[in-house]
Amino acid sequence: MKLLNDFRLIALLCLTLGLAPFFPEPHLWGKLKWIAGGATGMQPKDWFDVLLHGFPWVLLIRVIIVKLTSKNNA
C-alpha cells in the first residue's frame, strides 16, 4: 500500500509509462484525441492501451486528492 501513496514513484510512472513513446506526441495524448474524435475504429487493444498508459495518471490524481483531503482533516 505504501507504493500506491509514494508521490515520487507515481510521478516517475507518469513521466515514463504515462507519456511513452514521447515523439511525435505522447501516446496517451494521441489516444485521448482519438477518443474525443469519436473513437472510430478503436479495437480492444487500443482501449487496453489507454488503460495501460492512463493508469499512472489515475494514481497521481488519487494521491493528490488523498494528500489534499488528509491536510484538511488533520
TrEMBL record:
<keyword id="KW-0472">Membrane</keyword>
<keyword id="KW-1133">Transmembrane helix</keyword>
<keyword id="KW-0812">Transmembrane</keyword>
<feature type="transmembrane region" description="Helical">
    <location>
        <begin position="48"/>
        <end position="65"/>
    </location>
</feature>
<protein>
    <recommendedName>
        <fullName>RND transporter</fullName>
    </recommendedName>
</protein>
